[in-house]
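Chapter summary example: a protein plus uridine-diphosphate-N-acetylglucosamine.
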Amino acid sequence: MLETSPDAPNPAAVVVLAAGEGRRMRSSKLKVLHEIGGRPLLGHAVHAAAALAPEHLVVVAGHGRETVRDYLSGLATELSRSTLLAIQEQQLGTGHAVACAMDSLPALTGPVMVTYGDVPLLDSGTLRGLLTEHAVAGNAVTVLTAELPDATGYGRILRDQDGAVTAIVEQRDATPEQLAIREFNSGVYVFEADVLRDGLTRLADAAPSNAQGELYLTDVLGMAHQDGRRVGALRCPDPWLVAGVNDQLQLSQIRAELNRRLLGAWMRAGVTVVDPSNTWVDVGVRLAPDVLLHPGTQLHGATTVSEGAQIGPDTTLTDCWIGQGATVVRTHGTGAEIGAGANVGPFAYLRPGARLGDHGKIGTFVEVKNAEIGRGTKVPHLTYVGDATIGEGSNIGASSVFVNYDGVTKNRTTIGSYVKTGSDNTFVAPVTIGDGAYSGAGTVVRNDVPPGALAVSAGEQRNIEGWVMRRRAGTPSALAAEQAIEKANTEQSSSTAGAPEQVLSDGPSDTVGAPTAPRGGNDLG
Ligand code: UD1
Ligand code: CA
């Protein structure tokens, strides 16, 4: 970031050029709408421009103008300001594009800034530095430049023997000596409004004389110099800031650089990132000190992680809120809220409206949607919770299903506090279970359960003795059963031999240990 000045003037306008097709992306999606850090390239450019509080903010679009219009109308809420859209019917060059923007604006005085919609890392601090330089030097035109050992493709900055900027020459129009110049035009400028309007009119009146037959904005800078106006340049020490996206490879490189910078800032703010090369955060993510991000973590949208929480490994969260000291392991989540000290995963799926109270648990292979799970309540294993409200301190047995959908409408299940439901329960919504109630294993809860009741729906177990030996004779199961019975008989007769007075209750066909009521069976841990 270049030096910023608190008294940099607000620009009269910022013009963001985005009319190009971006054919080298080889994508059906418009180039400037490809995203990095969870925001389209154009969004990065417009955010940086908006931070300068210009009187007018204009985006020039041509290709894909309807998608650009839709995107900008959504952005208005995000920025709480409006953006104008100027249409450039045909892409006749950068000078023509800026002329289209100026034609859509009233008469202006003061500085007008031009930036590109496909240069996403350029930050508002650098832009403010350019405005300050322009004002302090009293320039008519100030161009942001950078240097690369090989500036192939860019327009080169020409200076006279005193170092004053005289013109910009494009790659295709340059002599071999000019091509050796390392200082290049970033495409970002500040113009005094009158110099810009005058230059653009003269540009349009003269036939283009360059190799591409386009109206070059760069020529306005040359004209100003020839007219004896002050033209200056500000060197940007960090070429990444002015790097543009032209193809998918550059998109991935600039995305990785943005991510490195975002993670760098979070680490400086006290976040532990175990493997920055394998951790991704969007620009809208907020992380507190002592958050720990394990490898394979992707945090998207407006995800917020509170102090001391641990995320990952292998976790993707979008628009989630994670409370202090919570752990979220191998989880995929969208629009969920996880309370302080709560545990999620491994292998949990959090869908919109999942809310877990402090110190609660959403365990392994558990899916939660539109459900509020109270403080300290645990849903530990293999369960679907959809459209439900569960109170505090309850426990949902393993392998349970909240049957929220009757094929037509979604219905809600309400479970009170300190409820213990058995394993393999189905809650057929709409249904309510009162505080402190229990349910047996395998219960299908179709009717409301009053507080403190034990709900049981499974019939009593019936064992048909010898069924496998008769109906599956000769199978490994039958053989194993025969051996087990024989062993039991042998042990029985040897122990009865030493204790003849012991009486067997009901003979060998008795069902050993069958409880009269089903057990809770929700205690897998
Ligand atoms: C331009 C500059 C060059 C500079 C380079 C930096 C000119 C003549 N040249 O070259 O000095 O080094 O940018 O990247 O300005 N655009 C429109 N409408 C048009 C043409 C372009 O909106 O008619 C937009 C494009 O969408 C793009 C930007 O302007 O965002 C730059 O256009 P591009 O064609 O890439 O310019 P270059 O030839 O690379
Ligand atoms: Ca370009």
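Key point: The pocket of calcium ion (ligand 2) is lined by residues 244, 246 (CB under 6 Å).
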